[in-house]
Amino acid sequence: MPENHEQEVPELLTIPEIAKRCGLSRQRVHGIAKSDPEFPSAVITPGTTRAKYPTKEVDKYFDSRVLRPGRRTDLAQKKGAADEDPGKDGNDS
């Protein structure tokens, strides 16, 4: 009887599945996958053109990322005409 040399197939995730799992938008995950060379390589399975990513590698990638929260732009003061110096008319003469 021949030995079973079946290769272990890793669990694969699609971009929407990664987004849901990590709490990110699909667009953000697409952007990361496209721009970060450290992001795991896509796997194309037979019968589909949809890229999938190995779960363990995706988890490892996101666990190693340093999260930097974005800057709150809604709290920043907007500089406009009301903020300009009232004694200055724009002429240097």
β content, as a range? 5-15%
Uncertain parts: none
Class computed from helices, strands and strand pairing: alpha+beta
Tell me how many strands there are.
3
Shape: elongated
- The helix count comes to 3
Order of H and E elements? EHHEEH
Q: What is the terminal separation in angstroms?
A: 99 Å
Radius of gyration: 24 Å
Main beta-sheet strand count, sense and barrel state: 3 strands, antiparallel
Indicate the mean pLDDT.
81
Helical content band? 25-40%
Q: Strand sequence of the main sheet, in spatial order?
A: 1-3-2
Set down the secondary structure blueprint:
Blueprint: E1 12-13, H1 15-22, H2 26-35, E2 43-44, E3 51-54, H3 55-64
Antiparallel strand pairs: 1-3, 2-3
Helix pairs in contact: 1-2
Name some characteristics of this structure.
3 strands; 93 residues; 30% helix; 3-stranded antiparallel β-sheet; 3 helices; elongated; alpha+beta
Can you walk me through this structure?
The chain is an alpha+beta fold and 93 residues long. The protein is built from three helices and three strands; from the N terminus they run E-H-H-E-E-H. The protein has helices at residues 15-22, 26-35, 55-64; strands at residues 12-13, 43-44, 51-54. Strands 1-3-2 form a three-stranded antiparallel β-sheet. A hairpin with a 6-residue loop joins strand 2 and strand 3 (51-54). Helix 1 crosses helix 2. The radius of gyration is 24 Å and the shape is elongated. The relative contact order is 0.14. The mean pLDDT is 81.
